[in-house]
Design goal:
The chain starts with 6 loop residues before the first helix and ends in a 6-residue tail after the last helix. The chain is mainly α. It is built from 9 helices and 2 strands; from the N terminus they run αααβααααβαα.
């Protein structure tokens, strides 16, 4: 199932979205009249355990079946992702439904790595199965079309219009970390798949952003992808820097450090 181009996406979509829905509807929002807050808090802690078990199990399966690259993704995405969420909650960038510890649900620790590595595998599996097909080059047009659609939705419904220059600047700078159509497609579709999970959680009320922007969130996922790939290349001793990549790396690393320290959010 983990290597099948059709079964794997269905499995991951059902698992991830099912976990979000289960958590959303098992978590108590303090609606129980007459029950002490301490009892409600205890129940909400228990509500975090089933999603944690499910996502941890998948994380471990991925770990067992992955090469060093996959294990780097699983560890780095989980650790950086969880730290980012904890600091983001403290600075008011977003809030979670629940989060007994630090305001962030414990299932997000294995969940971040699981979701991110699965998004990478979704695209790589699709590319591996169909890259030699005559129609595959049309995926470039699909990426452009989906980007235009996201722009219209983001600008008219969500928060892109609030700070459009800064968000689009960040979005285009982060893609300078990649070169060649193959890498750009990977970066875009990994970010696209991951932001769909983000949007699902936002829609269900599992988490909430005061300023929700597809383009801003996707830029963060593209940067995380670059961090994982760069660490993998360094470990293998094959990392080669380009001028644009180095410049973009300095800009984006500085931006995210300052953002995590609470200086600004875009």
């Amino acid at each position: 199932m983990l290597t099948n181009v059709w079964y794997f996406p269905i499995f991951m979509l059902v698992t991830i979205f099912g976990t979000l829905i289960m958590y959303r509807y098992t978590y108590s929002e303090n609606i129980w009249v007459g029950i002490p807050p301490s009892a409600i808090g205890s129940w909400n802690l228990w509500a975090e355990i089933p999603p944690t078990i499910i996502l941890s199990t998948i994380w471990l399966i991925f770990w067992k079946t992955s090469c060093s690259k996959g294990r780097i993704f699983l560890v780095v995405a989980s650790v950086i992702g969880y730290i980012h969420e904890v600091l983001g909650v403290q600075h008011g960038y977003f809030t979670y439904l629940g989060g007994v510890y630090f305001g962030v649900p414990i299932w997000l620790l294995p969940g971040y790595g699981t979701i991110f590595w699965s998004a990478h595998n979704l695209w790589k599996g699709f590319e591996g199965a169909f890259s030699k097909k005559r129609w595959f080059h049309r995926m470039n047009y699909l990426a452009v079309l989906s980007m235009v659609t996201l722009f219209i939705v983001d600008y008219s419904i969500f928060s892109l219009s609030h700070d459009i220059v800064a968000i689009l600047f960040k979005f285009f700078i982060v893609f300078m970390l990649f070169k060649g159509l193959a890498q750009l497609r990977l970066a875009y579709f990994v970010a696209f798949f991951t932001v769909l999970t983000e949007f699902t959680g936002e829609t269900l009320g599992t988490w909430s952003h005061p300023d929700f922007s597809f383009f801003s969130l996707m830029a963060g996922y593209v940067f995380l992808l670059w961090v994982c790939l760069t660490l993998n290349d360094y470990i293998k001793g094959v990392k080669k820097w380009g001028r644009l990549e180095a410049l973009a790396a300095v800009v984006m690393t500085t931006f995210y450090i300052l953002s995590l320290l609470g200086f600004f959010e875009v």
